[in-house]
Amino acid sequence: MCIRDRVTSNLISAHVRNYNDQKIAGVQGVILGYGDENIITKLIEDMPWVYFRKWAVYRRKTTDWAPLANASFRRSILREVGGLDANIPYGEDVDLGWRITKRGYKIVCDAEAVVLHPRKEYDNIIKVIKRMFIRGKADAELQIKHVERTSMTFPSLASVLIMLAISTLALCLIYQNPSFIYALLLWVLVYFLGDALLYSLGIKSSKYYVIRKQGDDSHLCLSILTWSISVLIRLSFELGAFLQKVKKGKPSLIFRELKYITAAKKTGKIVPDNVKLIHG
């Protein structure tokens, strides 16, 4: 929790009441935004990759990890697993949760434990891109440390673009012909147009793209602006992950991705419509 967060008046009691079983190691509440809204904050809050902030809203009963902005843990279990790993900034909460649940303990979700996080931290695209780049680096560190949670996948878009750019530059230098650059730009244009079409038709799904709130949730909002922002966020995350894997001498991980969360039982709890807030 940061110093600018606001909390519900019953936040502590909502956490404490869940520790009725020694196997319950931690509790995750709900994280909502407060402050002025703009197109960037609305886009970020609607993206599937931030759903971890509101697992309880979606009636999830347990989770593999909990964001530290609204989480509590048994002190004895924190000591048992060795506490936080400060070497994984923006990923230390994920690492902690995985180490806890790997030992057979549970982290439960409670929709009535609500923290409001300031939207000022993600109210412009530069802030978001910088943060996602760091999160990408954290993703690479998590893959290195928890390789058992990875699975084979196609290289990320950022990885493909970097490799294509290097190959194109090499061909231009070898053949003294800049037309290879035009071929690369044409490929990128066709790829993104095709990508946009597939997402707009609901043929593909992604944690980076915004789901419509009205109508069929399988379709995706595809205004030019929001889609472009989504692509920038995606590329910044993937670029951070790619560069960190290369830096750490783990290029084979370019072909692997993490499974952050596993399927879990659901509960009937949802966030109350009106919550009484106090300043944290």
Write a concise synopsis of the structure shown.
By secondary structure, this protein is an alpha+beta fold. Helices cover about 40% and strands about 15% of the residues.
What does this structure look like?
The chain has helices spanning 11-16, 39-46, 75-81, 92-102, 125-145, 157-175, 179-200, 224-247; strands spanning 6-8, 24-34, 62-63, 71-73, 106-118, 150-152, 256-258, 277-279. It contains 8 helices and 8 strands. With 280 residues, the protein is an alpha+beta fold. Residues 211-222 and 268-280 have low confidence and may be disordered. Strands 1, 2, 3, 4, 5 and 8 form a 6-stranded mixed beta sheet that branches. It has a two-stranded antiparallel ribbon with strand order 6-7. It is globular.
